[in-house]
Amino acid sequence: MKSSGLPREKTLENFDLKRMPLKIRPQVKILSEGSFVDRNENLLAFGPPGSGKTPLLCGLCHELARQQRRVYFSTCDVIVQQLLRAKRALELDKLLKKLSKYDALMIDDFGYVKQDRDEMEVLFTLRAYRSERGSVLLTSNLPFSKWEVIFKDPMTTAAAIDRLIHHRVVRELNVPSYRAEEAKKRTNSDT
């Protein structure tokens, strides 16, 4: 758990599964068993900010770690910066090999950061290297149709999506924002 970098409080025990669409609820139990990791499948969660993508995938990652699977969590901007530093130091291959030792790699907030060419290249290199070597769990507020803002180039965008969806489980979380609901509750209780 220590080396995973997972937020400690974001477990399935702390996750309000009742807010999820009915079709997703039974799938969470199946996903928590981790067989998708054995098959090197990717888990992609899309939805608007505050819909529960990060807590849900972090909760699943906690379950994977409890099963003695190696898990690594990072936000997209942090992992991109790690990859860039490694590339500048001519150690990108070493970092990619280190990351390949994890059974599951969770990248949070994919799409918030608009990458420049160097950032896009290292992110694509990570995706290509990881393809079929291990699972990627990814959260994004951007649907695939908007990923050109990340990768800038239609061919690179198509290749990145192709590698992700080849072995994948995609979940759309079109639910109201948790944070907006909590703020509304606090406002109502203050009046």
Structure, explained:
- This protein has a five-stranded parallel sheet.
- The chain has helices spanning 25-32, 35-38, 53-66, 76-88, 92-100, 117-130, 148-151, 154-165, 178-190; strands spanning 42-46, 71-75, 104-108, 135-140, 168-172.
- It has a single domain (2-190), classed as Rossmann fold.
- Helix 6 (117-130) links the parallel strand 3 and strand 4.
- It is globular.
- It is of the alpha/beta class.
- 48% of the residues lie in helices and 14% in strands.
How would you describe this structure in keywords?
alpha/beta, 191 residues, 5 strands, five-stranded parallel β-sheet, 48% helix, Rossmann fold
What's the total count of β strands? 5
End-to-end distance: 42 Å
* Level-1 CATH class name: Alpha Beta
Q: What would you give as the CATH superfamily?
A: P-loop containing nucleotide triphosphate hydrolases
Number of helices, counting only DSSP H or I runs of 4 residues or more: 9
How are the strands of the largest sheet arranged?
A: 2-3-4-1-5
How would you characterize the largest beta sheet? 5 strands, parallel
Overall 3D form: globular
What are the secondary-structure elements, in order, as H or E? Answer: HHEHEHHEHEHHEH
Low-confidence runs: none
Q: Fraction of residues in helices?
A: 40-55%
Determine the structural class based on helices, strands and strand pairing.
alpha/beta
CATH topology: Rossmann fold
Radius of gyration: 17 Å
Q: What is the overall pLDDT average? A: 81
CATH architecture designation? 3-Layer(aba) Sandwich
Question: How many distinct domains?
Answer: 1
- What fraction strand? 5-15%
